[in-house]
Amino acid sequence: MPKILFIEHNGKQHVVDAESGKSVMQTAVDNLLPGIIGDCGGACSCATCHGYVDPAWQDRVDPKGENEEMMLDGAMNVEPTSRLTCQISMKAELDGLVVRLPASQF
Ligand code: FES
């Protein structure tokens, strides 16, 4: 089972098991991770699942879609590595994925 390393804005780390096919957001919510809310349930319409995908993983995760770009335009603390984690589906090749969490969702 692939694992995700989530790093809170204060540096606290959480390693969680991720089921293949589930989104990074759903994995975080299922593990009661602080900093990922997922208000819209993964419909790409709330941006409360904002996270920063480590640059080393940028090319390996699902690419950003048009809706995601639009939602990120209205999100807080957006950086070049920003993603909506509900739009990233876990798979075996993403074992070890590193996602940092913004301070704005705590
Ligand atoms: Fe709402 Fe990702 S959960 S945009």
Descriptive account of the structure:
The protein has 106 residues and is an alpha+beta fold. The chain is 14% helix and 20% strand. The chain has a single domain (3-96), classed as Beta-grasp domain (Ubiquitin-like (UB roll), Roll), CATH 3.10.20. The chain has 2 helices and 5 strands. The protein has a 5-stranded mixed β-sheet. A hairpin with a 5-residue loop joins strand 1 and strand 2. The longest helix has 8 residues, at 66-73. The mean pLDDT is 95. The structure holds FE2/S2 (inorganic) cluster.
Short description:
This protein has two helices and five strands, in the order E-E-H-E-H-E-E.
Number of helices: 2
The CATH architecture would be: Roll
What is the highest CATH level, the class?
Alpha Beta
Radius of gyration, CA atoms, in whole angstroms: 12 Å
The CATH superfamily name is: Beta-grasp domain
The number of E-state strands comes to 5
Distance between termini?
28 Å
Q: Widest sheet: strand order? A: 2-1-5-3-4
Helix/sheet category = alpha+beta
Unique ligands: FE2/S2 (inorganic) cluster
